[in-house]
Design brief:
By secondary structure, the chain is mostly helical. It is 74% helix and 0% strand.
Length: 171
């Protein structure tokens, strides 16, 4: 029952939810990589091993980032309103459509907080340039560091949220 899940310790609840998200989004990545690329005949120069390693590290970073941020909102709807308005600025901060050397230094610093900043060039290098794991290792290291930082911060915020006895929440 739901009440027995709520009585589990914070790491079990947090990591259980993170595992569910990882499995869910791995299906999306497989669909994207195996179906969409073939249906639309996108060029695919990357090997499967770098793509799998990238997917695991990227999903760990993004999921922990999202779960960490989810603890800052009392209602799920509030987070959706915020991210709908910030999705385009986040895209620009990822250096995908705007080069980082043309951005002010404070925006470059802000972009380092987002997993997409390191993920976009790594994914493009793997999929479009055929880069191997060693070529994208610096970006993957940064994503892994983000994943660990956001995991620890998410666990701390979740524990704090549980102790604060707020009426609503995500975990």
């Amino acid at each position: 029952s739901y009440s027995s899940v709520e009585n589990e310790s914070v790491p079990y609840r947090y990591l259980g939810r993170a595992l569910a998200y990882i499995l869910h989004y791995c299906c999306f990545i497989l669909f994207y990589h195996c179906v969409v690329y073939n249906v639309f005949d996108f060029p695919r120069r990357g090997e499967i091993f770098p793509m799998v390693v990238f997917a695991i590290v990227f999903l760990s970073s993004v999921i922990n980032f999202g779960m960490c941020l989810s603890q800052m909102f009392l209602h799920r709807e509030s987070s959706m309103q915020l991210f709908l308005n910030f999705s385009i600025p986040i895209l620009f901060l990822a250096n995908f459509s705007w080069p980082s050397y043309l951005m002010p230094s404070w925006m470059v610093g802000l972009s380092y907080l987002l997993p997409s900043t390191f993920a976009v060039p790594a994914w493009l290098s793997i999929e479009q340039l055929g880069a191997d794991i060693y070529d994208v290792a610096p970006k993957l290291y940064l994503l892994a560091i983000q994943a660990v930082i956001y995991l620890v911060l998410g666990l701390i915020l979740t524990r704090w949220r549980d102790k604060s006895h707020l009426g609503t929440g995500d975990m």
